Amino acid sequence: MNRFQEKVAVITGGGAGIGRALCEELANRGAIVIVADIHEGNARNVAAAIKQNGGKADHRAVDVSGEQEVKRLIEDTVSNYGRIDYMFNNAGIAIGGDVRDLTFEQWEKVMGINFNGVLYGSIYAYQVMAKQGFGHIINTASATGLMPQPGNTPYCASKHAVMGLSLSLRHEGLDLGVKVSTVCPGHVQTNIYKNMTVANVKNEKLVASLPVKAMDTQKAVATILNGVLKNQDIIIFPANVKWAWRINRLFPRLLDKAWVEKIRNIRDLREKG
């Protein structure tokens, strides 16, 4: 039995990366996909490719940091399709560097998209799903929502906030038929680091310093959807992230050296920049 068949799924950040791969795989599994992205052209292209491949899709230009835009996305979906079965709050950005070099405008931009965008999508979808008596909200956090990430502190703070929101909402939704899962990926083959702003560090230097091996996007999406079908509270991948998380929980001091080395690496790039 295909549990995604004819289900209405909204995906923010659906124009690229994990979001795009989610849209494509959900459509392949028979879902009706709403591709939402701040870049309308990207959203339109993803939806068009899905329809050309025989799937069902629509697209919306949405800046998730704007409450009213997210509200309209939810309202329009319900108006057009009668319900929402899955809400994937996936859109996100990263702005990093030494905290001394970051502006409050940069902090606000990260929190506006990574946390407020998830908050708006969660709450408006939750209200609809509570009335329906069913639905599943899937919020993209990160491995950095489980552990520190010096050198990427605004992103880390936003993802910790997503974790708190999602885990609390999961328990609130239990008696109302609303499920909530949180996705915590490690390094996946997307352009998030390529597009990342790092204060006082050239982006190409940062990218060159990253681990070479990253999880295949399709494999990541398969892991996410498998976790959704199992109604997992936290969907963590790949395996090395799971182990790091477990070690950090049981023996937090063991990873102190790794966290310090991360910010030293950023500072080394900064000072040589």
Provide a compact summary of the structure.
With 273 residues, this protein is α/β, with parallel strands linked by helices. It is built from nine helices and nine strands. It starts with 7 loop residues before the first strand and ends with a helix.
Structure description:
- This protein is α/β, with parallel strands linked by helices.
- The chain has one domain (8-272): Rossmann fold (3-Layer(aba) Sandwich).
- It is 51% helix and 16% strand.
- It is built from nine helices and nine strands.
- It has helices spanning 17-28, 40-52, 67-81, 104-132, 153-173, 203-209, 217-229, 239-250, 256-272; strands spanning 8-12, 32-37, 56-61, 86-89, 95-96, 135-140, 178-185, 197-198, 234-237.
- The strands form two sheets. Strands 3-2-1-4-6-7-9 form a seven-stranded parallel sheet, sandwiched between helices.
- Helix 5 links the parallel strand 6 and strand 7 (178-185).
- The longest helix is centred in the middle third of the chain and has 29 residues, at 104-132.
- The chain is globular, with a radius of gyration of 18 Å.
